[in-house]
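Entry for the shared binder. Reason: the reviewer on the internal report wants the predicted structure included alongside the sequence.
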Amino acid sequence: MSRKANRPARGIPYRRNLGLISMALPLVAFFLLFHYVPMLGLVIAFKDYVMSDGIFGSAWVGWENFVRLFSSEDFPHAVRNTLMISVLRLVCGFFAPVILALLLNEVRLAGYKRSIQTLTYLPHFFSWVILAGIFLMIFGGGGPVNSVVKLLGVHPVSFLTDNVAFIAILIVTGIWQGAGWGAIIYMASLSGISPDLYEAAVIDGANRWKQTLHITLPSLVPTMITLFILSLGGIMTAGFDQIYNMYNPLVFNVADIIDTYVLRRLMGLDLSLATAAGMFQGVVGMVLIVGANIFARKISKGEQGVW
């Protein structure tokens, strides 16, 4: 028998998986068209962009736009607000989906469990345009919250104009909107835990709390690390949809973030400065993801990480 006959035929795996590859093509095309091709426009950050001259006809200015960006008063202020809100979201809201998933995992009535799960992740499908209108009505001066406060004989609270109260509302409503959706991932991880581990723990006399502490939580750690790394990539965004639909000039000093800064520059037709700010935002997010992934792989000896 010749060596050629023993050699595996090239290209056979591709033909066998042609159906799966064809199903993946629309997703690949989506990311190419809407995520990678637009990155060519980042060259505007290094040019004095004039619409009539086009991208390649505009004058090259190098790092001048970045110098102008960081020497301004508005952008460092927006960066500070973005980091403050994002860190608060991460610290206060990262464990909310985990806790919700653990609570749902303890429910034994299947119908009741599905109903609660549906109600908790339903807010994820509502636009912040709708949710912001609801929350502005609830926490407004004549809203139901202040109506209850008045009945208690307390002076009404300006939730939407007080800096601390407004940030608290942003964080709490953001957690409420995303906790149910995030819990789905942890519920999937919980379903993959072997029942034998719990049976062995029961034999050893472990109660439900000890089973959760020594079996459930360690099993969720890989998923938690992965989602934490991915969350760091969005730390420079702080939730534009929510903030843009809820903030007002009275809380501008704590609610102005990088995305709203970029929007103002775009509306002022300063496209070069807006692109420079967006590029800075993306580069910092990428550095945070790569750095967190390297750190996670290092402390876990290569066992944890996104890649």
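Summary line for the report: The radius of gyration is 25 Å.
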